[in-house]
Amino acid sequence: MSHYSASFANLLNGPLGTRVLRNRGRSRAIVSALIVKNLRCHLNDFLDGKWLPSKSTASSGYVVSLTSWRPRLPDLPLVLLSLLRQSVLPSMIHVWLTPSDYGLMDPVVVERFSAYGIRFETCDDLGPHKKWLPMIEGGASDPFVICDDDILYPRNWLKNLLAEDREDAYVGTRCHRIQRDESGMPLSYEKWNRDVDWESFPSRDLFITGCGGAIIHPNRINSEFRDREAILDKCPKANDIWLKAAHAVAGIPCYKTRYSFPCLEIPGTGSSGLMQTNVDAGGNDRQLYAVRGLIK
Q1: What gap in Å lies between CA 241 and CA 159, rounded to an integer?
Q2: Percent of the chain clearing pLDDT 70 (strictly above)
Q3: What ranges do the domains of the chain cover?
Q4: Half-sphere exposure for 200 (CA within 13 Å, toward CB)
Q5: Cα angle at 247 between 120 and 159, to 5 degrees?
């Protein structure tokens, strides 16, 4: 079974790889395709019982939660495999699906992954908010990590994210910097500084994007931001914006970790994702407008 070479793995970690592969271009597509090819071979070995996650790998003690939906289900096992290959493992992984989407899951995939700490759970269709809201509604009180279902997570992603959890900030791996008008209100999303570098201090102007992963402390999200009706009315497809507003109202700034990686998408998933509606079609600005007074 082939694995990433040391030089290839290094490219996917740190600011250099992030800068080189930052834009959605041919280089990103080529690198993503190579990783997916490797992962598909590894996935076949896993499903056939030829490769098993190491029992000696340390547990982080943190749960990881994510969601998926119908167009992404064929590639979901690749993301789950990348989570099982972490140098520090989640204590458990929750995958939240609508009942109809769960019914489309390959039973072999469900059975195989379930044996290694992955729980496939059903909930109402809350869009991207399925990755965090059902956890809290279900009584989660300890911090947990959220991530996306279309990103290829490098081996040290979780370890490096958790190493910088803080009492005074909402922590994530990838951040934008909000640009504001003279009154302090956020400008249009397209005018923000994208994918900024690490700074040693938290800031109210940082905005965490979920693709890099973020740490949710349930006690920081008050009841008004757990209200399903408000969520679906104001930010139905922008959990990143909603979570930023929730932390801003609680007086909690954001912090970007020292660690960076290029957030490579699985090829082909962009056409079925929120990038199309939120960024390319201006959906972020429409949802940002609904809560921007809270982010001021």
Answers
A1: 25
A2: 87
A3: 6-295
A4: 0
A5: 55
Helix (H, G, I), strand (E, B) or coil at 259: coil
Which residues make beta-bridge pairs with 118?
Answer: 93
Instruction: Encode 169-226 in three state secondary structure.
Output: CEEECCEEECCECCCCCECCHHHCECCCCCCCCCECCEEECHHHCEEECHHHCCHHHC
Cβ neighbours of residue 153 closer than 8 Å, sequence gap 6 or more: 79, 82, 83, 86, 147, 213, 261
Per DSSP, the chain holds a count of helices (H) and strands (E) of: 12, 9
For 34, other C-beta atoms within 10 Å of its C-beta total: 13
Contacts of 250 (CB under 8 A, 6+ apart): 220, 221, 222
What pLDDT digit, counting tens, does each position of 13-69 carry?
666 566 666 665 677 788 888 889 989 999 999 999 998 888 778 889 999 999 999
Contact 157, 177 (CB under 8 A): no
pLDDT (tens digit per residue) in 247-275: 999 999 999 999 999 888 898 776 554 55
Contact 243, 214 (CB under 8 A): yes
- CA-nearest of 233, 273, 216 to 70 is 273
Instruction: Average the pLDDT over 94-118 and give the result.
Output: 97
Least confident among 19-23, 111-115, 269-273, 289-293:
269-273
- CATH-assigned architecture of domain 6-295: Alpha-Beta Complex (3.90)
Cβ atoms of residues 120 and 68 within 8 Å: no
Window from 31-45, 207-221, 275-289 with minimum mean pLDDT? 275-289
Amino acid code (one letter) for 23: N
| Tokens of residue 134, six digits | 């059902």
Q: Please list the alpha-helical segments (H only) found in 72-106.
A: 76-84, 99-102
Decide: 186 and 155 in contact? Cβ < 8 Å. no
